[in-house]
Amino acid sequence: MAIDRRREAVGGGPGRQPPAAEENGSLPPGDAAASAPLGGRAGPGGGGDIQPLPAPHPTSGGPHPSSSSAAAPSLLLLDYDGSVLPFLGGLGGGYQKTLVLLTWIPALFIGFSQFSDSFLLDQPNFWCRGAGKGTELAEVTATGRWGAGDVANWTSPPTTSFSTVAWGAAGDLSNSSGSDGGDTPPLPSPPDKGDNASNCDCHAWDYGIRTGLVQNVVSKWDLVCDNAWKVHIAKFSLLVGLIFGYLITGCIADWVGRRPVLLFSITFILVFGLTVALSVNVTMFSTLRFFEGFCLAGIILTLYALRIELCPPGKRFMITMVASFVAMAGRFLMPGLAALCRDWQVLQALIICPFLLMLLYWSIFPESLRWLMATQQFESAKKLILHFTQKNCMSPESDIKGVMPELEKELSRRPKKVCIVKVVGTRNLWKNIVVLCVNSLTGYGIHHCFARSMMGHEVKVPLLENFYADYYTVASIALASCLAMCVVVRFLGRRGGLLLFMILTALASLLQLGLLNLIGKYSQHPDSGMSDSVKDKFSIAFSIVGMFASHAVGSLSVFFCAEITPTVIRCGGLGLVLASAGFGMLTAPIIELHNQKGYFLHHIIFACCTLICIICILLLPESRDQSLPENISNGEHYTRQPLLPHKKGEQPLLLTNAELKDYSGLHDAAAAGDGLPENATANGMKAM
């Protein structure tokens, strides 16, 4: 029926054009040849019957190639994973291993920077500093407890995703604004009810900092009461800087190269990051944090792209996950670093100083060879290939496929660079990127909903009664999510794994919103046998499952985008997905700024988005063990395949050229591929 409708729409006029590529993978045979290098090695679950598509055999009576086809570079040079990378030794070369290691090391520093807000901007407990402080101290020391008047001067900050009420040792956690911490009394236990307005009438406060620091940004500039909103603006600044950085540096990296953007970002993160530690007010702090986030985004994005472009198809996911575990190590080490530094300015300087080591990358880290080949900068590519062979001690005889002779013929070509805006004119590529952007936004956005729901039961759950338990609980869930990703993606592939984790996220969200309300209604009846503790336990269980799955959704969406986006616009596509993740994380400080108003609606919206994402994921292609697309044409033909492989004898939904000729309305399109085998399809050879 679809073929009949297409034939009627095209008509039989002599001036009609060949049909465009279809979403199920069928495309004009003339275009199929251009994507031939990308058809190889379909992994399990990604269409096991797909085989590499052979190059068309020229015939004397066939149509002659157009001038644009004649001007196209050799397919051998565009098949980077099939010809250039094996010539360089794949990932077995010693120089390639060194470069991969150099992309792993900065992940530790990135982990420090990404999670520094939890320590620099943590809202401590605070109370008014009384006039007769010396007398009160003597009374507290003598009696060992606080009187009613002392307790009335205590207040706690608004609830955040890590808001707890238990503190550690008084010597480590107690601090005063404008005075040393030596004469600060022990911290009282929080009262059940209190008048917080009386504490905001003070002009000076004492602080109970829970993160191991003696002083942080909040206690430095008294960002409490009427000034508490400035804390959320300071949290905005880093995230907004990351969002703008992903979008802008991604486009620049596709135009001028990965290496210049990386070196530029390293240089300026040192300037802005160290200047943050010298801030004289919160306005200066927030402004500089924006630029620090901008430069940090450039480092994250370029290292991610370089890591992907260095690896052969079978090693890409493993190499990326190792970098994620290194960043996770930085997250786990951050509390110890804060306890060691004691002051927020020292901590900020210590986080940024390791980036000084990356200045050495100026001389030891080359440009991405894959990007040079994809943008037809063959002169620079030739020099870099010779550099690789020299570092790996390779002989010219190892060039079995003749990459260097083909490269010599193409040296006179002009570079052909592409901007991410070109994706608007595509049919399949923009759809894939938009789907992954929505997945990334949903995964990171709903993650905060689950975290807030779990931390909301901290008073009733002893495990969650201090800052470190909160911090390490969330970090451990993220670590478990990464470990599960390694197993799931190995067996189900990228698309199957993303679909599984999104289904888990949707189930956890819907059960938390629906089932818990039902349990709450039944618990109000005295003979129901249910109590509020049952509801709380279910809520915590659903929150943990939701945080576990949503973290995997966000991380896998970013990796998926890096694989299906063509090399010529890979950084731009990555920038879009990472910026979407930033928007998802930005919802957390927005909700906190409004004192948690609208949280329930926020959760409902993201729960609905999970259901939409489950449907959209089925439209994505499977990229496991597939060559990376190099140009937009390759990416456009990188279309979806069946989620499960065809059973033996089952008729696939792709028509061969012989079957296309049976339809009079498609004779012209079929004639363009007469040089191809009869059982050839757009994505490869159909099993007979």
TrEMBL record:
UniProt GO molecular function: transmembrane transporter activity
GO cellular component, one term: membrane
Membrane topology note: Multi-pass membrane protein
Positions with biased composition (Gly residues): 40-49
Localization terms from the record: Endomembrane system
Disordered: annotated span: 1-68, 174-195
Entry keyword Membrane: yes
Residue spans of biased composition, Low complexity class: 58-68, 174-184
Keyword annotations of the record: Membrane, Transmembrane, Transmembrane helix
Major localisation: membrane
TM spans (from-to): 236-256, 262-280, 287-305, 317-334, 346-364, 471-492, 499-520, 540-562, 574-593, 599-620
UniProt entry tagged with the keyword Membrane: yes
SUPFAM superfamilies the UniProt entry points to: MFS general substrate transporter (SSF103473)
CDD domains, A to Z: MFS_SLC22A23
Protein's recorded name: Solute carrier family 22 member 23
Organism phylogeny: Eukaryota, Metazoa, Chordata, Craniata, Vertebrata
Gene: SLC22A23
